[in-house]
Amino acid sequence: MEQTHTEEQILELTSSAGGEYEREAVPESRWKGWKSFLGMYAGEHAAGTEFVIGPLFLTTGVSAFDLIIGLLLGNFLAVLSWRFLTAEIAVKYRWTLYYQLEKICGKRLVTGYNLANGVLFCFLAGSMITISATAVGIPFNMEMPRLTDTMPNGITWIVIVIAIGLVISIIAARGYEMVSKAANWMSPVIVLAFLACGIVALGQLGVSNFSDFWNVWGEGGEPFPGQVKYTFWHVMLWSWFANAAMHIGMSDLSVFRYAKKASVGWTSAAGMYVGHYMAWIAAALIYAVYLRSPEVESILANGQAPSVAPGPLAYNTIGIFGIIAVILAGWTTANPTIYRAGLAFQAVMPKASTFKVTLLAGGIATFAGLFPAIAMKLLDFVALYGFILAPFGAIIVFEHFFADRCGVRKFYAEKTGTRFNIAVFLAWIISFAVFYFISLQFNVFLSFVTLPTWVCCGVLFLVFSRYFQKKVVVS
């Protein structure tokens, strides 16, 4: 989208005053090439949370084929979603998710979405602060949170979490430029740490060939107490939709609006394969080493699940470098997550500066980080988080690709002054209620119904929009 020189000057001035083009298209002078996104995606997805997710896969009794091939395909589907949905729409309009939804949904409806989105982002960032705290606490002999812990376990834990949250919040509040720079600085160190963890763990496990590597998981086994048994479909669909809110949920419109062209969306592969694929497997390997210890055998004999605190796991594998890696990994993931949360809150409070609302988001994330339950139940939280938010992305996708051929007016709320687009609300609430009921009533894994919910929401949006828009025109 071209901008005149005068418009560019105005937007540049807004940015220099602390704005992030929250209600404007990003001008061409601020578009960025693939290098700016490569480091950010590699850093964000080679994160502290990977030190938890990798071990959690082992607790589900997953087999080698289900894990290795399931992750391979699931992450590929995620990359395709970023490239051909998120990035494609982002470079077309160059708006934040929240501003684009406002044009479709109306300000009153999108306010509720923004609040929910911002709070969920804060909880996600809080889990990353929790993970970094498990590394910072090692020199202080801090008691680590257990898999079943929900409340802070001491004053040392509280002080460390608050200190980490403060640093992360300030970096995020400095805006996209600072977030991108921080990720580029830290991501090579984090990636190297995950690789080192995997290599060291392979030696500790006595792996000398691919057959030995495969046998680390073998045919799988029974899940740990309180865990669900994962199959190939669980792994593939969970890994595809682990970031559902970001790609099919369109949250990363706020990031890719800075991209020079849609092909920059392929940089998400750095996050999925250097980050998720390699990092999850490396983290699973260091946990496999831990599971062979006498301590774990005693815990399992008592019918309990062993801890998955990432700080000690990384430290036991590669020493001080592991502590540093977990701290940095938490930072690079929490930074863009708090940045996104700040944009969500800024859309609700447009008169407040992005700096202030991002600090607010950081404060909420820090508070959430005090409670380890979110990090310890990360697989469940991520699945629920994507299930709630992804259907709103279907509204944008289906309008962009199908509105014209279905006779639906684009950006209906903006063009008519509607503050609450009933078609959007009905599409989301019906699809959410139906498939969440199916998940609960029939004990269906939530990631199994994420895609049907997303498609259902998009189709219902077009159907209801066509009906209500015609009704308004006739009247």
UniProtKB/TrEMBL annotation:
Record keyword Transferase present: no
Transmembrane parts of this sequence: 64-85, 118-142, 154-173, 185-210, 230-249, 270-293, 313-334, 355-375, 381-399, 420-438, 444-464
Annotated GO CC locations: plasma membrane
Molecular functions (GO terms): cytosine transmembrane transporter activity
Membrane among keywords: yes
Keywords, alphabetical: Membrane, Transmembrane, Transmembrane helix
Top-level lineage group: Bacteria
PANTHER family named in the record: CYTOSINE PERMEASE, CYTOSINE TRANSPORTER CODB
Name of this chain's protein: Purine-cytosine permease
Species of the source: Sinomicrobium pectinilyticum
Organism classification: Bacteria, Pseudomonadati, Bacteroidota, Flavobacteriia, Flavobacteriales
